[in-house]
Amino acid sequence: MTSQVVTRFAPSPTGFLHIGGGRTALFNWLYARGRGGKFLLRIEDTDRERSTPEATAAILKGLSWLGLDWDGEVVSQFDRRGRHAEVAHEMLARGTAYKCFSTPEEIAAFRAEAEAKGASYAVFQSPWRDADPASYPDAPYAIRMKAPRDGVTEIRDEVQGIVTIRNETLDDMIVLRSDGTPTYMLAVVVDDHDMGVTHVIRGDDHLNNAGRQQMVYDAMGWPVPVWAHIPLIHGPDGKKLSKRHGATGVEEYQAMGYPAAGMRNYLTRLGWAHGDAEIFTSAEAMTMFDLKGIGRAPARLDFRKLENTCGHHLAMTADAALLHELEAFLVAAGRPALTDTQRDRLSRGLYCVKDRAKTFPELLEKAEFALTSRPVAPDEAAAKTLDSVSRGILKSLTPRLQNASWTKEGLETILNDAAAENGIGFGKLAAPLRAALAGRTATPSVFDMMLVIGRDETIARLLDAGA
């Protein structure tokens, strides 16, 4: 019987949720959810100067927008510092760590001497590693782990393959400082072990840490988790993603109007592949996602592909869910909320605009006919279609529409008859109709617009335009 898969996302609360962090969280979430496992969240807030409650809130908000739900309570790494210290002292008792009384000045002098001898990097070798406890002074001490001095440490990584680290390059790292505070390297391992994490899926900027962290597992006799270090996300130019490439924070993408489902789909495919699968739901992604499909090369952010993916998801989403997310977008973007009338019309009109938009701003632009209020002000191109002849035709339509069957078929009959009676093709009639109903030349079909805004509003807009 295999143990339950447990993954985790462990960001530092020093700012917003970066898009790369969002993808890391997504990969962990998909891997756990697709295997009936747990996805845990830990905030690595031991850096008290840089960690802020606002940043933690921003991370939680970003994850919630992406739709990544976590199991159990959010764990604070800082709150567990007593447990970390306890493990450091247990390593002392096991003989896999030792008390080091070397002062910062002595360590600096060692490095300066090594540098003077031309060494590019020197591993500090503490004189206290094998010292007799009887020689210990009555002074503050750090606890250092006893790293192996020869041979190699192998990291068996599901993405990077077997990574070999020469042990001579690994120092006896400090696990507990002389002031009693634990180091990051110790805290991460203790937390992952205590939380039952079976798979550590994270950015490959942590790959070097894995060698040192694996020694902590070995020193405590704990099972080593499955490692999977994923390449970072680069900008379209192949350089590390930064502000110059555009938005880098997850919340910025919400405010820009990308739907969460489309964002999840795009980020899943960013550096991972499963055959020819391009557009899929999260449920489908859970069944497909595996570590073997993750590439070793950095992924490049492609905004055009992101928009195309989001366009598919806008079209796929049920109208009620789409309206709910659109209203959340308005809040995130600082835009005015919908009025009751706008919400009602939009809920009835989404079917004729959602397959033509790639973002929420585009969708709102195409749904302007349902959101605008009388009198409808035509733009320059639309105004040109409202000459005296077309105004007269629009005015003559209103009596017929009063008693028309308000269905697409009924409206088609009336409008086609009106075009024929005036000796024009339907296209010649549709242009001023678009101008009157929406104030622009590019709109959904005139029949869809009339059905969405209703009989009274349609007649009123035609009368306004014909006046």
Automatic annotation (TrEMBL):
UniProt cross-references to PROSITE patterns, sorted A to Z: AA_TRNA_LIGASE_I
EC number: 6.1.1.17
Protein location: Cytoplasm
Chemical reaction(s) catalysed: tRNA(Glu) + L-glutamate + ATP = L-glutamyl-tRNA(Glu) + AMP + diphosphate
Classification via SUPFAM superfamilies: An anticodon-binding domain of class I aminoacyl-tRNA synthetases, Nucleotidylyl transferase
Role played: Catalyzes the attachment of glutamate to tRNA(Glu) in a two-step reaction: glutamate is first activated by ATP to form Glu-AMP and then transferred to the acceptor end of tRNA(Glu).
Protein's name according to its UniProt entry: Glutamate--tRNA ligase
Organism: Tabrizicola oligotrophica
